[in-house]
Amino acid sequence: MPFSDPKNQPSLWFWLLMILLSVTGGVTKYVTDAQEKNNVVNWINAGISGFIGGFAGVVSTFYMLEQDFSMYMIAFGASLSGFLGVIALRGFTKFILKITENMK
To answer: Which residues cross the membrane (predicted)?
Structure first.
């Protein structure tokens, strides 16, 4: 992975980029939803959507790093998870529950 150090751990720049992409995805989702509904953009709500998107993007990044995806796929996954936000978190939850049920 190009952003890795010798111990094969992602660097700080990699994490900052993934967080930035996922937060941007969350804010973009909020702004596009507000425009579709002809609402005024409230930047506090945009920040909340960015925070939720950032969390979803970090969860996605953890999973994709564990599965050894390429840097570009991880960036795509973080951005998409940030855009999807709560929908992505629900999908991750169902996926984890399915894995734990299969382990029993």
So the answer is: 12-31, 43-63, 69-89
